[in-house]
């Protein structure tokens, strides 16, 4: 009878892949643990304890993949067929590193860490896709398998014993077999319920909500800038951050009502029966704060999207899709927000995705070009620099689009990284062309977004551009906004490296955002740029005159130059001169002009032009 039952079970399992889900979930956990042990080993290469922990983690992965390699479950997820050999190769290479003894080889550990990161990411992707595919079959087969519960339990016990015995025979003295008994439904790092648990239980929660006549709210949570935390402080602090988030989510859990799940990486979910939208607002407040993690003050930030049954869908797949759309909208609004799904979100996303596609096409077609806003020294009237401003020429229509029409969309995605790189490359190449005709202190200014400064690749790109073009770093100025100071420690580290290169820094739009005198004192800035909003109605507003005068005095006391933006009247210019403002730019002196016209003006003014400070310099005429 037992073997007849087992035969029936065996024929049923491939339909919904339960064995595959459980086996590969545990495999992901083991490989993730190995990756973390490699990261820790890099920090303590001479520690015997580090060697022992890495060996134990490597043994565990060896057992796990010897167990599934070549078995039936590997065929359940075809993409894993290519992953298993990669993992086995990594295990062998780690064995070689361990065999070489202390200190552990730094280069090999770094390469293995990067490789294991990629493997874990790929495993998670395939695991998620497969989990979605088999979920319906899991639910449909549940009733058919109930009669075999005791036989299944007994069969799994026998099979587990056989598998463990086989592992012992394969590796002899390896003592980490007990780690194979990790709970299948829990995330190893945070101890929250995992994706496998959610796949197996989410339909049950929905059915309970339906029978009770209550709503089921699905919250999808994505941490903001988690990669920056890992890159800046290391994976150890990243794991502590995940645990801090998990504690917050566990605090709202209620048996049979509210479940907290780690979906993978920096993604989490909350499923709540009968709770109001207020839960989302409370989570946003609790997750957007600073935390002390092993002596480091790290900002926890999260974006949250929510969809509820029955208002936003009658099945889990629809709820997941709509909650994900709401999460996308929350990120598009600037992150750290909470958005409830509505049909209007779908049209907004369509517009956003269409705009992103157009920006990508423009990048590929090289449709972006630069115009230049001249900058003048007010004491002498000399042109002392020019700010590069990006424009987009649509080749199909011939229309020229201004930054306000596409930069916000680019900043809500990673496309701003590519735009900033193109602008920097084009600006530096042009600046080199002007070196022979411009004064020695003529500087080209380029705007850089906060997101770009958080990207490790930007500093490398900057160095490469300066080397390739031959532009002296002293001829380049990067303009940053105040928001970068609260976004990422990684961005601040990048700014420090940029200053060490000899590139100057200007704080753009000063006074419009997160002004902090502390940053002015601590950072090695060169210039403050007064936001144009302070110049509007400057001549009639005593308060604005006091503010602008105070900013100029503050900058002068700190040894910083001041550049006023948006000068459009003679009265504004006269006030700035009287307050001893260093420089100004704006339509009153010159509209943005192309490189050819600016080149002509530089040639005309070479070596002799001394304009009076109050004279109107209309270069666009």
Please tell me about this protein's structure.
This protein is of the alpha/beta class and 621 residues long. It has 21 helices and 17 strands. Strands 9-10-12-13-14-15-16-17 form an 8-stranded mixed barrel, surrounded by 4 helices. A 6-stranded mixed β-sheet has the order 1-3-4-2-7-8, with helices on both faces. A two-stranded antiparallel sheet has the order 5-6. Strand 9 (368-377) and strand 10 form a beta hairpin.
Write the topology of this structure.
Layout: H1 2-16, H2 18-43, H3 48-68, H4 83-99, H5 106-146, H6 149-171, E1 193-194, H7 195-212, E2 216-223, H8 226-233, H9 235-250, E3 258-264, E4 267-273, H10 278-287, E5 289-293, E6 296-300, E7 302-309, H11 316-332, E8 338-340, H12 343-364, E9 368-377, E10 383-393, E11 400-401, H13 407-411, H14 415-434, E12 443-447, H15 450-454, H16 456-469, E13 476-481, H17 489-501, E14 504-510, H18 517-522, E15 527-530, H19 542-557, E16 561-564, H20 570-578, E17 583-584, H21 595-605
Helix pairs in contact: 1-5, 2-3, 2-5, 3-4, 4-5, 5-7, 8-9, 11-12, 14-16
Mean pLDDT: 80
The Cα radius of gyration reads 30 Å
Strand order of the largest sheet: 9-10-12-13-14-15-16-17
| Total E-strand runs | 17
Short description:
This protein has 621 residues and is α/β, with parallel strands linked by helices. It has helices at 2-16, 18-43, 48-68, 83-99, 106-146, 149-171, 195-212, 226-233, 235-250, 278-287, 316-332, 343-364, 407-411, 415-434, 450-454, 456-469, 489-501, 517-522, 542-557, 570-578, 595-605, and strands spanning 193-194, 216-223, 258-264, 267-273, 289-293, 296-300, 302-309, 338-340, 368-377, 383-393, 400-401, 443-447, 476-481, 504-510, 527-530, 561-564, 583-584.
């Amino acid at each position: 009878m037992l073997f007849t039952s087992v035969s029936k079970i065996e024929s049923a399992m491939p339909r919904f892949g339960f064995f595959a889900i459980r086996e590969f979930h545990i495999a992901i956990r083991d490989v993730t643990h190995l990756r973390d042990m490699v990261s820790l080993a890099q920090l303590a290469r001479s520690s015997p304890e580090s060697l022992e922990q890495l060996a134990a983690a490597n043994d565990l992965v060896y057992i796990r993949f010897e167990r599934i390699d070549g078995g039936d479950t590997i065929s359940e997820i075809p993409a894993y067929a290519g992953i298993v050999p990669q993992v086995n190769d990594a295990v062998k290479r780690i064995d070689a590193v361990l065999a070489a003894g202390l200190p552990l080889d730094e280069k090999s550990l770094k390469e293995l860490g990067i490789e294991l990161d990629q493997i874990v990411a790929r495993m998670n992707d395939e695991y998620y896709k497969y989990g979605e595919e088999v979920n319906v079959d899991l639910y449909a087969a549940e009733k058919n398998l109930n009669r075999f519960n005791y036989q299944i339990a007994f069969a799994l016990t026998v099979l587990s014993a056989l598998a463990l015995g086989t592992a012992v025979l394969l590796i002899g003295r390896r003592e980490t077999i007990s780690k194979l008994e990790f709970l299948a439904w829990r995330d190893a790092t945070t101890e929250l319920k995992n994706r496998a648990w959610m796949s197996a239980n989410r339909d049950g929660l929905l059915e309970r909500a339906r029978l009770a006549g209550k709503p089921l709210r699905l919250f999808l949570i994505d941490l903001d800038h988690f990669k920056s935390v890992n890159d800046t402080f290391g994976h150890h602090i990243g794991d502590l951050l995940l645990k801090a988030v998990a504690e917050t989510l566990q605090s709202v859990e209620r048996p049979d009502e509210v479940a907290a799940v780690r979906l993978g990486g920096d993604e989490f979910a909350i499923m709540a029966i009968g709770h109001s939208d207020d839960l989302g607002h409370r989570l946003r407040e609790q997750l957007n704060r600073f935390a002390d993690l092993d002596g480091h003050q790290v900002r926890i930030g999260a974006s949250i999207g929510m969809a509820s049954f029955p208002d936003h869908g009658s099945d889990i797949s629809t709820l997941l899709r709509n909650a994900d759309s709401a999460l996308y909208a929350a990120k598009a609004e600037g992150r750290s927000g909470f958005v409830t799904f509505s049909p209007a979100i779908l049209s907004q996303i369509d517009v956003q995705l269409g705009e992103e596609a157009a920006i990508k096409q423009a990048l590929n077609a090289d449709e972006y070009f630069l115009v230049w806003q001249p900058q003048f020294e007010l004491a002498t009237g000399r042109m002392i620099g020019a700010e590069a401003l990006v424009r987009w020429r649509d080749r199909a229509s011939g229309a020229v689009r201004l930054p306000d029409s596409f930069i916000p969309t680019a900043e809500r995605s990673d496309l701003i990284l590519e735009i900033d790189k193109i602008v920097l490359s084009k600006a530096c190449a042009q600046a080199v062309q002007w070196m022979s005709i411009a004064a020695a202190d003529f500087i080209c200014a380029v705007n850089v977004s906060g997101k770009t400064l958080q990207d490790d690749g930007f500093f490398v790109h900057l160095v490469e551009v300066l080397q390739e073009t031959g532009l002296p770093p002293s001829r380049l100025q990067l303009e940053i906004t105040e928001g970068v100071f609260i976004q990422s420690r990684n961005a601040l580290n990048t700014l420090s490296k940029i200053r060490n290169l000899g590139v100057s820094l200007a704080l753009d739009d000063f006074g419009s955002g997160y002004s902090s005198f502390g940053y002015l004192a601590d950072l090695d800035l060169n210039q403050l740029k007064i936001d144009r909003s302070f110049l509007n109605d400057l001549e009639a507003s005593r308060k604005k005159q006091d503010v602008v005068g105070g900013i100029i005095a503050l900058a002068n006391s700190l040894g910083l130059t001041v550049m006023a933006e948006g000068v459009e009247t003679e009265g504004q210019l006269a006030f700035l001169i009287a307050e001893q403002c260093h420089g100004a730019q704006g339509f009153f002196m010159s509209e943005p002009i192309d490189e050819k016209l600016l080149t002509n003006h530089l040639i005309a003014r070479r070596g002799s032009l001394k304009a009076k400070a109050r004279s109107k310099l209309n270069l666009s005429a």
